[in-house]
Amino acid sequence: FNITTFPNEQKDNVTKWLAEARTTAGVDLYAHFAHRCILSQVYPELSSAAQTPGFVTPREVFSRCYFIGQSAVSAWAYDTGDGLVIFDSLNNAEEAEQILIPNLEALGFVGTDIKHIVITHEHFGHYGGARWIQDNFHPATYVSAAAWESLVKVENGPLKDKTVAEGNVLTLGNATFKFYETPGHTPGTISTIFSVYDNGIEHKAGFFGGLGVPSEAAAKMQQIASLTRFADLGLKAGVDTLIAHH
User: Which SMART domains match (predicted)?
Assistant: First the structure.
């Protein structure tokens, strides 16, 4: 099962860059390093199995910020005081109806509380349930222009609505979200910085819209540039916590 043979492997370089990646990750991001740099490279079947759909108990992670997804794909809800903002919509209509909505209900909300959906990028695990949510609850739906180019062609994809672009600031109820275009994972990936609260203490959350490594070299370079830029933006904004969609 261990398929560690790579064509033209340069062992010295592999050792050098793995060591640098591990040092960069440190204790906080060691699990991410192990998944991206070891597990997914050497044991891809195990890596794939790590993202098998399964039930995760919904919970309030920060004050008014809730996890409502499943084990393979995340979805998040933010209570703005004037309705919910949902980030991503799971894989399909069935998951939106049978996972996302029941998770909201377990937290004391109902589907009609959803006033806005943000789709981080144009992969089905993130837009798949959006059309069902649109049809049933009619929220405003925010997607980047590049992502809309693909999504309008998808059968049963979300109906085109609002477009968010670099630097857009949305104030919804008592919450403000600032958006950035961060292509790489997909051409239309968007990322967000916003405030969250823990026991009354404010923190800044950085939500990077697409961390999965793309297959094409040009897209990889684009993603590296986006990650580097978002890291700089996060430092300037005082980001001290990360939110993810897997």
Answer: Lactamase_B
